[in-house]
């Protein structure tokens, strides 16, 4: 969701600063890059050394609510919606919890999709295919008929491993990092994509000239 539909970069940076101070983390800027597209619980295991399941759940919730709070501090504009998202919004799978996703969507004015998969709905997060397989199942379609829109290499790999076609947007990672994950198409953002629906069939036009 973050980096594809919404931009919460200032909030994410603020949350990692808070947790970095609390857990004595070094190289927070590098952690932010490595953590994108990975479930919060897995990031907290890896970077903060939290292993107790109950503590992980508590801290994951605290981290994600800190993103929402930090995104509005010091004159920041809050979590924002990325260009052309409302025109292209589809059933959503994301690496955050339901609590954070609900708060982020509310902040941007995006209506929560009917088919929705959050971090706690699957045992294994991206790059494992489980999240997108679950999303396709909730939609009642074969995953091979799905288009995954992703900004993070781990998410791209998840979609490809699930058997979906993947459209990558360059909203959070370099073209080189995205290309290494082997998506089917790459565009700067969703303004380079248009969707039309005719008789229940979705037609997609992608402008890869940029």
UniProtKB/TrEMBL annotation:
Record-level Gene Ontology MF annotations: sugar-phosphatase activity
Alphabetical list of InterPro entries matching this protein: HAD-like_sf (IPR036412), HAD-like_SPP (IPR051806), HAD-SF_hydro_IA (IPR006439), HAD_sf (IPR023214), PGP-like_dom2 (IPR023198)
Cross-referenced PANTHER family: FRUCTOSE-1-PHOSPHATE PHOSPHATASE, GLYCEROL-1-PHOSPHATE PHOSPHOHYDROLASE 1-RELATED
Protein name: Related to HOR2-DL-glycerol phosphatase
Lineage: Eukaryota, Fungi, Dikarya, Basidiomycota, Agaricomycotina
């Amino acid at each position: 969701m973050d980096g594809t539909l919404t931009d919460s970069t200032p909030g994410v940076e603020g949350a990692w600063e808070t947790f970095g101070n609390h857990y004595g983390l070094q190289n927070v800027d590098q952690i932010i890059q490595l953590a994108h597209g990975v479930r919060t619980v897995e990031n907290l295991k890896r970077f903060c050394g939290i292993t107790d399941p109950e503590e992980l759940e508590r801290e994951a919730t605290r981290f994600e609510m800190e993103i929402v709070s930090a995104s509005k501090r010091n004159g920041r504009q809050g979590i924002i919606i990325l260009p052309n998202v409302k025109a292209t919004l589809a059933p959503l799978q994301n690496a955050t919890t339901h609590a954070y996703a609900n708060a982020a969507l509310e902040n941007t004015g995006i209506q929560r999709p009917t088919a929705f998969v959050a971090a706690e709905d699957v045992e294994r997060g991206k790059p494992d295919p489980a999240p997108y397989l679950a999303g396709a199942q909730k939609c009642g379609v074969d995953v091979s008929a799905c288009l995954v829109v992703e900004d993070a290499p781990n998410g791209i790999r998840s979609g490809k491993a699930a058997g979906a076609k993947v459209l990558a947007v360059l909203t959070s990672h370099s073209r080189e990092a995205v290309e290494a994950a082997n998506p089917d198409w790459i565009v700067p953002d969703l303004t380079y994509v248009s969707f039309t629906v005719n008789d229940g069939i979705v037609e997609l036009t992608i402008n890869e000239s940029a």
